[in-house]
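Weekly puzzle thread! Below is a chain. First person to post its structure in token form gets bragging rights.
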Amino acid sequence: MSNQSSEERVVRRPPMEVRDASRRALSNLRWHPSPSGPDSFAAVWTSRFFHFQDDVSVNLLPERGTTRVRVKSVSRVGRYDFGQNARHVRQFFDELERELGS
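Winning reply:
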């Protein structure tokens, strides 16, 4: 059983471009993003009916003209999330790809 999910991908774009696209992706998803460092964001997702909250973090690591993007989603309550955190991670990467036009 798990109440968290994480994934990382290498994006073949410069860090500044990925940072701007990440901020827009989080806003588009309505996850209430806030910068938590120069190359990271924190966001909160709230479920519609029960108002459960999950914390989503996005860290950007520059690597020779590319950017490694690490995303982690963790439930605040409970031991099992029925796959919701994995959906958050997939949704973020899908939205990031749309923002980057990939």
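Puzzle host: Confirmed. Bonus trivia for everyone else. Strands lie at 4-11, 34-37, 40-46, 53-63, 66-75.
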